[in-house]
C-alpha cells in the first residue's frame, strides 16, 4: 500500500492499518513485512502474493475455483476472521471482506488482506 498525498484522513488510515496489522500473525492473513514513513511518503510492505485475488478466480476463471476449493477457502477465511476477532489482544473487525481482499498464496491457501478500514475494539 502506497500513500501518495497524505492528508489528515489518509494519515489516520495509514496509521490505523499499521497499528492494526503489525502485531498479528496468522496463516490466513497476509503478513506485513515492514513500513516506510518519511516526509510525505508512506508505504506498508506486505509479502508478495503472486496468485491474484479470489475475485479473479471466481469471476474471471470460475473453473480454476472448483466448489471443493471454495468450501475449503471459506473455512480458511473464517479461521482468519476468528483470529482477528478472538485471538488478538484487541479484537479487530476487518469491515471490508470481499473476494478482491482475499489473496491466494503459492499453494492456493486464501489470505486476508487490506485492513484499511479495520476497527480496533477495546474493552471499555
UniProtKB/TrEMBL annotation:
PROSITE patterns referenced in this protein's UniProt entry, alphabetically: PROTEIN_KINASE_DOM
Location of the Protein kinase domain: 1-124
Keywords noted in UniProt: Lectin, Signal
Keyword Mitochondrion: no
GO molecular function term, any single one: protein kinase activity
Acetylation is among the record's keywords: no
Pfam families tied to this protein: Pkinase
Name of the protein in question: Protein kinase domain-containing protein
Species for this entry: Oryza meyeriana var. granulata
Amino acid at each position: 500500500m502506497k500513500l501518495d498525498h497524505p492528508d489528515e484522513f489518509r494519515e489516520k488510515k495509514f496509521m490505523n492499518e499499521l497499528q492494526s496489522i503489525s502485531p498479528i500473525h496468522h496463516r490466513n492473513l497476509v503478513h506485513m513485512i515492514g513500513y516506510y514513513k518519511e516526509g510525505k511518503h508512506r508505504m506498508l510492505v506486505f509479502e508478495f502474493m503472486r496468485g491474484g485475488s479470489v475475485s479473479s478466480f471466481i469471476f474471471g476463471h470460475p473453473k480454476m475455483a472448483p466448489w471443493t476449493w471454495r468450501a475449503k477457502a471459506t473455512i480458511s477465511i473464517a479461521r482468519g476472521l476468528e483470529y482477528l476477532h478472538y485471538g488478538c489482544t484487541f479484537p479487530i473487525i476487518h469491515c471490508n471482506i470481499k473476494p478482491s481482499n482475499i489473496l491466494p498464496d503459492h499453494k492456493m491457501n486464501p489470505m486476508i488482506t487490506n485492513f484499511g478500514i479495520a476497527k480496533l475494539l477495546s474493552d471499555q
